[in-house]
Amino acid sequence: MEFNHLLRGASVRTILLIGNVVVGFFMLPYLIHNLGLEVYGLWLIVGSVIGYFGIMDFGLLAAAQRFLSAAYANKHRHEINRALNTSIMANCLLALFLLTIAAGVYAASGWFFDDKELNRLFDILILIMSVKFVLTMPLAAYNGVVTAFIRHDLAAKVELAKLVGRTTLFVVAIENGYGVIGVALSMLLTELIGSLAMMFVAKRLDHNLTIKPSDSSLSELKSFFNYGKYSFILNIANTFRFQVDNLVIGKIIGLDAVSIYAVAVALNRYRNNAFNAVIGMFQPTFTKLQVQGSETYLGEKIRQTFQAALFLISLSSFVFLLAGDSLIFWWVGDQFQLAYFCLVLFSLGSFVGMSTMPLQTYLNAAAMHKKNAQVTVIEAAINVGLSIFLGSKFGIAGVAMGTVIPAVLFKLFFLIPYTTNLLKTDAKYYYSKILIAVSLTAVCFYVWELTGFNKTRTLNIEIITVFISLFLIYAISAFFFIFDSKSRRYLASKIRMVIDKS
To answer: What is the C-alpha to C-alpha distance for residues 236 and 169, in angstroms, rounded to an integer?
Structure first.
């Protein structure tokens, strides 16, 4: 039964992932062209500010899921209701806390923009999105119940329904002239309905759930804080790493530049989300092997996963580097071409940043949060300072460099040596494979530049033939250089197995 739930969950989440990419791919240029560069940039700034609200849960949401799962595993009705009611109480307090933070942001809106009309619009959007958080935060406790039942399929279906509803309302709002305020109200409505739907799903899964304030526990709340504190630190650091760029660009460059930068960020995010969905599935395996003490086999499994990760990242980076300029032109127009340089920086950084994700996954599986949290905070601080400094010198390209450089240095000089030392494996292996992948990509990129097709805005048979030929040569070369002989034999056996079954 549990396996069937996991299988259904994986299937629906895959559909959801594809849906998000497809919708995002078409909605981004639609929103930019209908709202305008400046207003869309403002919407992204609001999203970044509200993104900081999401980290103010102090790790309590993750803690609630953990304690609810443990209570259901023990089949203790009192523990289940105590964990749920404590989570609801904590989330209500958080909602009030976020309301005060929103009031502060509202009062300080003059710091963001000199234009009075933009300030007024910013205030309205912050108000709407703050109301969304306040209304949905208490209901987030029910997500832990659904997770405890391992019904990721039901949660993904709710998210899929929200995606369809949100996209529909976005289009209706814009086509009827309600602009970005209509977009914000659509977001509020779909998130609130989605949260209520999750509450309904949780109560259908467990008919005995009872909501009584007297069942909440201060001692349980303290346990929540103790468990969630390092998750909270990581959330803060990651939010600063990924949300600060829009604020920096909006303040020192302009709202138009925020929209241009968002194009490169969106393409990179689509790729990374798909990648995370694949690599993230290995965490339970790593956890099991780590608990069993199978360190040698665990090291081998991580090394194989790293090879697969580096191979996939290499292929996607090849496409972005060679075809990214033309893709951006066809997607959103020629005024966004500066986004290509940012995409190049993100792609180069991904050779180190994304290929080492199996090592990051191992640290999570081994519950080594503290060290990772401390270093991530340092990385986030460097990110902020470097983005401001380089952004003032080189515009959005400087902000991209300020994001990529600390991430690459963190992976090269902390994650790889620290993790390989724990696994008792050779760090040089990982460095050499990354260097090979980058070098191979650089050679192919140089060849593509020599053809003169890199700036082409039209497609013809010659361009398509050269690109496909170069891609196939690159893919075959990367396969043999990145995978070792044992991994190649393993993949070959799996491919033959699939062919035989078909």
So the answer is: 31
Q: What CA–CA distance (Å, rounded) separates 141 from 203? A: 12
Query: What digits encode the pLDDT tens for the residues 347-374?
Result: 988 888 888 888 877 776 565 656 767 7
DSSP secondary structure string, 101-170?
Answer: HHHHHHHTGGGT-S-HHHHHHHHHHHHHHHHHHHHHTGGGHHHHHHHHTT-HHHHHHHHHHHHHHHHHHH
Query: SS3 string of 312-329?
Result: HHHHHHHHHHHHHHHHHH
Distance CA(161)–CA(190), nearest Å, equals: 9
Cα 213 from Cα 82, distance rounded (Å): 9
Query: How many other CB atoms sit within 10 Å of the CB of residue 288?
Result: 12
| CA distance linking residue 271 with residue 152, whole number of Å | 22
Q: Closest Cα to residue 256, out of 480, 448, 41, 8?
A: 41
For residue 283, the model assigns a pLDDT of 47
Q: Which residue has the higher pLDDT, 64 or 117?
A: 117
Instruction: Specify whether the CB–CB gap between 269 and 411 falls below 8 A.
Output: no
What value does the mean pLDDT take over residues 168-197?
Answer: 94
Side chain identity, residue 422: L
